[in-house]
Ornithine cyclodeaminase family protein
Amino acid sequence: MLLLSQEETLKALPFLALVDALDAMFKSGCEMPVRHHHDMAVPGEPDATMLLMPAWVPGAFAGVKIVNVMPGNSGRGLPAISAEYLLSDARTGEMLAMINGGELTARRTAAASALAARYLARKDASHLVVAGTGRVALNLVGAHLAVRPITRVTFWGRSLDKAQALAAEASALYGITVEGTSDLEQAVRAADIVSAATLSKDPLILGEWLQPGTHVDLVGAFKPSMRESDDEAVRRASVFVDTREGCTKEGGDISQPLASGVLRPSDIKADLHDLAQGLHKGRVDDEEITLFKSVGAALEDLAGAILAYRTVASAAAS
């Protein structure tokens, strides 16, 4: 059985190849039971969450990811997400690979955002604003660079020092103009793409800030009690999701407007299955404001795990 470290997982999942792998899996589909979602009390800290996410392609590959989401880790300087992924042969049951789940999660999450941007962001989108300074933030830059001509990135975080440090890291890694800011409103008003990757319980991205043609990408706020956008953003935008079943139940950016009547189920234009299969064309014109909400899907992990396994196995065989 292959054991892929964090560094090996990163190298095995280049963003363009990963975006294409997700696109192909959303086109073909797989078996994906509802994830197990359990709150775990942590004394003196916000509740943690354990997720169990299985998926399989009959007769080909099967996998399951175990994820621990620990909000209190931010105060310890540790990643909020810890995870491992077990990939198996779906015909024989043989265990094929154990893949670093934290790196897989961060990269496939960013790749799903980039896949949505491929369909929903303007083709000339060049200014990316990222709200959040966690692990996924840096990956969002690399993923969007794979699908759009990004030349400028602005990071916002509750800590300006963290935003500026992340900006310096991103600039060195990607060789583009990157800055940190304490003024989220100003950044959003000037953005072509806004990605939010936080655990916020209150809206950060306000609809009144959005300019015509903006694409909003909501990655964090994975519980019904969390939210990164307000009702006005939902009203002004064409709304898309990664999966209807997941987002209408789990992500507060969709479930809260549905509960209040601001959004109806029929107002959700499409999910990634619809977009990948050509059932919806995506962005209509350069003036449309689009909003994409993701809560993650086991399909995405499986697609990434298969890509990582095949990449490493192929390299070992050559």
Notes: The two ends are 18 Å apart (CA to CA).
